[in-house]
Amino acid sequence: MLTVFFLPIVLINIGSVTVPWLLFALYMTSGIGMAGIGMGIMHDAIHGSYSKNKKVNKYLGYTMNLIGANATVWKIQHNVLHHTYTNIEGADDDINAPFFLRFSPHAKKNGLHRFQYLYIWFFYGFSTVSWVTAKDFIRLVRYKKMGFLNKKNEFRNELVKIIGWKLLYYSYALIIPLLVVPIAPWIIILAFLSMHFVTGSLISIVFQVAHIMPNTKFPIPDEDGIIEGDWFTHQLATTTNFSPKSRFFSWLIGGLNYQIEHHLLPNICHIHYKKLSNIVADTAREYGMPYNTKRTFAAAIMDHIGVLRRLGKIQAIPAP
């Protein structure tokens, strides 16, 4: 995946591209590699499950920074908030959305949401553009206010690192191509955006269809902030697997089609999920617990669309 991402970028940066179609093809290929790095390398590494060696995990986690995002911000957003408070409105950052999107029945509804199942694909596609420009800074400030990054100079140091890594990313991914590629700048920028559209679409759809589905629950805490049931039941009730029989697809997306196994065992490398899934499914059935799965990725996407349409129509369900 690192090769799939960096080799096309190198070919672009050495000035070997002179025609727009090849520029777009190389950038979009890099988009597949970027998504692969996000789902198959940094995701395991930041969870500490790529290797038993902590240093290997640490340095492979920096591949997140190489593609324009930030490992520290992601660790808080994903490892802490998403995995602890899955599908809980206001706590799970994966379903906290801008006003024009609605991912939870407990979120405030407006008239635009009726059409979100149509326009959401545009925002899925360009989600990583906002991610590598503004979102990391916004989240860093918010997480500081939430009590994270509270060690001496930790916030300031992380801010400097984010700026440095993003300057590096934009330098090799866009600025150098603008300087060396003999093609109109607006075409180069469009090709760069096409790379992100590929990455954003793949990452957003894979992560969202695992949780925003017809059978997944959106629990709300009681007055004391307590969620009914134990943590394992919560993860099973809020997560869905898809396309469990496709080995190539599973490799392509870093085993994230086995989201249930990942949420229950985030410290286990994804290459073991397929075998673990049989044990988890049998155990869930034995204890009468939910085990949501869709036979194909296409079926999961169609169900996801159905939920988006329903969320665009139903009024917000208030907390008890």
UniProtKB/TrEMBL annotation:
Which Gene Ontology cellular component annotation is one that this UniProt entry carries? membrane
Q: What Pfam family does this protein match (any one)?
A: FA_desaturase
Q: Which GO MF terms are attached to this record?
A: oxidoreductase activity, acting on paired donors, with oxidation of a pair of donors resulting in the reduction of molecular oxygen to two molecules of water
* Keyword Membrane appears in the UniProt entry: yes
Manganese: present as a keyword of the record?
no
Positions of the Fatty acid desaturase domain: 21-293
Q: Which domain of life is it from?
A: Bacteria
Q: Where are the transmembrane segments?
A: 118-138, 159-180, 186-207
Q: Which UniProt keywords apply?
A: Membrane, Transmembrane, Transmembrane helix
- Gene Ontology BP, a term: lipid biosynthetic process
Instruction: Please give the name of this protein.
Output: Acyl-CoA desaturase
- This protein's species is Flagellimonas hymeniacidonis
